[in-house]
Design brief:
- With 192 residues, the chain is an alpha/beta fold.
- It is 36% helix and 21% strand.
- The chain has helices spanning 12-21, 41-48, 64-77, 94-100, 120-126, 162-185, and strands spanning 2-7, 29-35, 53-55, 82-85, 104-108, 131-138, 148-155.
- It has a seven-stranded mixed β-sheet, sandwiched between helices.
- Helix 1 packs parallel to helix 6 (162-185).
- It binds 5-O-phosphono-beta-D-ribofuranosylamine.
């Protein structure tokens, strides 16, 4: 299966997916990385690992739809089967999200449906939660609202800050994202 990854920054989840896809028996090939930030550190990693990249700034487009149309054209050009959002900090127009529903995944650092949106680690701490985690889910037009595919739990420890909790959660993200994509690409889980 042909997979594109969309990033906006560091791209550590993208790195985990690229590394996993290097194994001969992995059922997916990372065919491209797209970023809305031309200076996204993850782009350098993708290029160094032989993965084609494309980048366009949303600031260059008059509307969300026009920007999404460029992303769509890039994905069609790469002939992708699935799209993995990995720290992609843009909200899609409804039309784009609807078109890719069933072929687009995201990873969110909380046990959805808890703590949607920004700063989920801080939300969990503010909530006095003792357990946190991350979720790979289907992308649908509603933000962070698609059905979960795979989740992992991490403990919240005394003295945790948003940073220490994010670091512990990120390690779990790097495990479940490659596994969720493997399950999907191998047909182990039904498409949405
Ligand atoms: C991760 O916490 C991910 O769950 C969230 O944004 C962060 C991106 O990290 N979507 P990275 O860019 O994959 O390192």
């Amino acid at each position: 299966k042909r997979v594109a990854i969309l990033i906006s920054g560091r791209g550590s989840n993208m790195q985990a997916l690229i590394q996993a896809a290097k194994h001969a028996d992995y059922p997916a090939e990372i065919v491209g990385v797209f970023s809305n930030k031309s200076d996204a550190p993850g782009l350098e990693y993708a290029r160094a690992n032989g993965v084609p990249t494309a980048t366009r700034s949303h600031k260059d487009f008059a509307s969300r739809e026009a920007f999404d149309a460029v992303i769509d054209a890039t994905l069609e050009d790469w002939e992708v089967d699935y799209v993995c959002l990995a720290g992609f900090m843009r909200i899609f127009s409804n039309g784009f999200a609807r078109k890719w529903t069933g072929r687009m995944l995201n990873i969110h650092p909380s046990l959805l449906p808890k703590y949607k949106g920004l700063h989920p680690h801080q939300q969990a701490l503010d909530d006095g939660a003792t357990v946190h985690g991350c979720t790979v889910h289907w992308v649908i037009p509603e933000l962070d609202d698609g059905p979960a595919i795979l989740q992992a739990e991490v403990p919240i420890l005394p003295g945790d800050t948003a940073e220490t909790l994010a670091e512990r959660t990120l390690a779990a993200e790097h495990r479940i994202y490659p596994e969720a994509l493997r399950m999907l690409a191998s047909g182990e889980i039904a498409p949405l």
